Amino acid sequence: MTSDIILTGDRTTGKLHLGHYVGSLRSRVELQHVYPTFILLADVQALTTHFEHPRLIADSVRQVALDYLSIGIDPERATLFIQSMIPEIAELTQYFSMFVTVNSLRHNPTVKSEAKERGYNDLYYGFLGYPVSQAADIAFCKATLVPAGEDQIPHIEQARKIVRRFNELYRPVFKEPRILIGGRLTGLDGGSKMSKSLGNALYLDSSREEVELKLAKAKTDPARVRKDDPGHPDICPVYEYHRHFRPEQCADIHKLCSKGAIGCTDCKRLATQAVNELLEPLRERRGTFAGRMKHIDEILVEGTRKARAAARETMLEVREAMGINYF
Ligand code: ATP
Ligand code: MG
Q1: How far is the CA of 20 from the centre of ligand 1 (A)?
Q2: How confident is the model at residue 1 (pLDDT cuts 50, 70, 90)?
Q3: pLDDT digits (tens, 9 = 90+) for 232-243
Q4: How far is the CA of 54 from the centre of ligand 1 (A)?
Q5: Which domains does the chain have, with CATH numbers?
Q6: Is 24 a pocket residue for ligand 1 (Cβ < 6 Å)?
């Protein structure tokens, strides 16, 4: 049986939050012990929407690396690397982009909804093409499994089509990647997914007090006015947090809330405890790494060196398959 290779990562547009944890960080920590794992700090993909704020992107690279280390990513097992420092990814993106049509990108539902969210009418070339670049992120290290949130399904489907087309056109160099979908976490506003850009996130570096304050303000079932009104836990973001962060308690919470036997304040207090219990070991690990930024840089230099070596090997094969290996 051949082993999977994992590729996963995050845009470096700010700190990571509980949505990232549920969507993909949680499974990465387990998978790193089982499969070769590449974790991408996606600074180029971050530029597609933040090209006016390169400073934020650069600062976020170390911030996100610290988030990774705090959740228990082990740099001895997982290769942490910076996307812009692997020029072979840009090269592969270029080759892939020759046979990807503009319409297939325009019809990608995640691209569509993100463009709408950001108010883009005339789409930037780099933004429209980011799923192609993402296919190259996956292909350069021959990844077969991508742990990611459900918004990534269309991108992985597009990546599968791209490598299939490459293999048909030239030579079978790549395997089609599969997605490993984590859950989707709703934001504190109860409206949409938890997201950096929507300002509804609970960050992994939150203090105990921040967790308490933010959860106290979180939206709950809007139909519930008085404490003893029966609630609808299935549409309440706080109940969702119970489900993800203290599953053993959630059947009881569901029952009590549905009967109006527990008020939102008490329910939030229990959710606060669950989230703080989850974050406590992260705070400890963050504390040990935070004073050692030089060590984090060393981890990134070493990871980027390893990723680059894999990229060089793949590109030799790619150029040979395409017949453009001249000398
Ligand atoms: P931005 O607003 O900058 O796009 P983001 O919070 O959406 O930030 P990304 O870097 O785009 O974060 O996403 C990285 C990974 O985290 C992806 O796999 C995505 O599916 C997952 N993810 C992000 N937010 C959530 C969420 N609320 N629930 C589950 N998964 C999520
Ligand atoms: Mg996003």
Answers
A1: 6
A2: low
A3: 999 999 999 999
A4: 19
A5: 6-185+293-322 (3.40.50.620), 206-286 (1.10.240.10)
A6: yes
Rounded Cα distance between 231 and 264, Å, is: 9
pLDDT digits (tens, 9 = 90+) for 49-76: 999 999 999 999 999 999 999 999 999 9
Nearest CA to ligand 1 atom 22: 20
Q: Which two tokens stand for residue 160?
A: 């599968």
Quote the ligand 1 centre to 239 CA distance (angstroms): 20
Question: What are the pLDDT digits (tens) for 282-313?
Answer: 999 999 998 898 999 999 999 999 999 999 99
Q: How many CB atoms lie within 10 A of CB 51?
A: 12
Atom of ligand 1 nearest to the CA of 194: 27
- Is the Cβ atom of 66 under 6 angstroms away from ligand 1? no
Substitution candidate for ligand 1 out of 6, 10, 45, 181 with most atoms within 8 A of CB: 10
Does the beta carbon of 196 sit less than 6 angstroms from any atom of ligand 1? yes
The dihedral built from the CA positions of residue 255, 258, 261 and 265, taken in this order, carries a sign that is positive
10 lines ligand 1 (CB under 6 A): yes
ipTM of the complex: 0.93
Backbone angles phi, psi at 42, to 5 degrees: -85, 75
Indicate the pLDDT class of residue 2, thresholds 50, 70 and 90: low
Residue 71 DSSP SS3: helix
Rounded to whole angstroms, the Cα distance separating 299 from 84 reads 16
* pLDDT averaged over every residue in the chain: 95
